[in-house]
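Spend some time on this chain, tokens included, and walk me through the fold:

. . .
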Amino acid sequence: MTGNAAIDRYLTQISNLLKNEPSGDLLDLGCGNGEYTSLYMKASGAKEVTGVDIHESSLELARRRGIRTVQHDLDEALPFEDNSFSVIITTQVIEHLFDCDHFASEIFRVLRPGGYAIFATENLACWSNVLSLVLGYQPHTESISKVRRIGNPFAGNYGEVMDHEEMQHIHVFTYRSLYEFLNLHGFKVEASRCSGYPPFPHGLSGIMARLDPYHARYMSFKVRKPLVSDSSN
């Protein structure tokens, strides 16, 4: 785990959403160096795992972890046949893409009927963002410069130089908008988990995120692609 309580809880929640499901193969879109992909593979029990990322340097590290990799721009059509995977996961990716609708429709296309996907991202409406806006500062989830993090002196990474492989957030969802977005693209939402509730400490933060998911920092949705017979429901 990372040592960051909110992120560790977020990863645990994703792993729990992956459990207790039969899964032969898993596709991780935006796999990075494969560190988290390995966790997801173990949690899901998938026998085969494919990781997709745009950065070859990250994919090289993922391959060392035994992950089959594909270098690809996720704003483009996915290089897979229809109904190819039983499980698809994408974490901290959708907010970086120019065309979220296209991305969701591609995931729906390559997911097998009856299969499930997990979409995980940050919440624009988390209290730290709301408070930042009230004070006249840039929301934590929104970077406006590709050079250095500016606009919010209370952000933990304020003033840091942007990594050359780091991408800015383009579309950041709220809990409600992500729920509606997933329904819009034909998925059936089965479960959601949220974590992180600044400025509350870790123990209380977990309780508050469960009570008020609309203002938690991280959110994860488990969705199902309906069987053909269910598609008209």
Q: What stands out?
A: The chain has one domain: 5-124+169-227. The beta strands are 25-29, 48-53, 68-71, 85-91, 111-122, 188-195, 218-224.
